[in-house]
Amino acid sequence: MKMTDAYRAQEGEATDKLIHEMLFGELNGIECPPYSSSDQEANRVLRKLKRNFKTSIVTGRTQSRSKPYFARYGTDISTSTEVLAETLALAICRLALLLLQRDK
């Protein structure tokens, strides 16, 4: 499984497949859901992350025009980790990659 820079992960099939394999298991011939481009599918990822990692995860909007969404895990402001993205789904997926790669 090829690791990727979670902070720069792009929306698309490569990111979706990586998240699926790391979080849900092998695809086994099924079509991979569009986690990085669908808020509904990204929310499945978010729920699974909250169950698996038992950490505070917060998502929301920023003031930035270029990256208006964020996702953050952790409870202490000095040790929390945050990612920014162009869409909410991509922010959730970037955070998922960070958590999943950290756990390996």
Give the secondary structure arrangement, pairings included.
Layout: H1 13-24, H2 39-53, E1 57-61, E2 69-73, E3 81-85, H3 88-102
Antiparallel strand pairs: 1-2, 2-3
- The secondary structure category is alpha+beta
Question: What is the global morphology?
Answer: globular
Unreliable spans: none
Name the helix and strand elements from N-terminus to C-terminus, one letter apiece.
Answer: HHEEEH
Mean of residue pLDDT?
Answer: 91
Radius of gyration: 13 Å
Could you estimate the helical fraction of the residues in percent? 40-55%
**Strand elements, count:** 3
User: What percent of residues are in strands?
Assistant: 5-15%
Distance between the termini: 11 Å
Please work out how many helical segments DSSP would assign.
3
Largest beta-sheet details: 3 strands, antiparallel
Q: What is the spatial order of strands in the main beta sheet?
A: 1-2-3
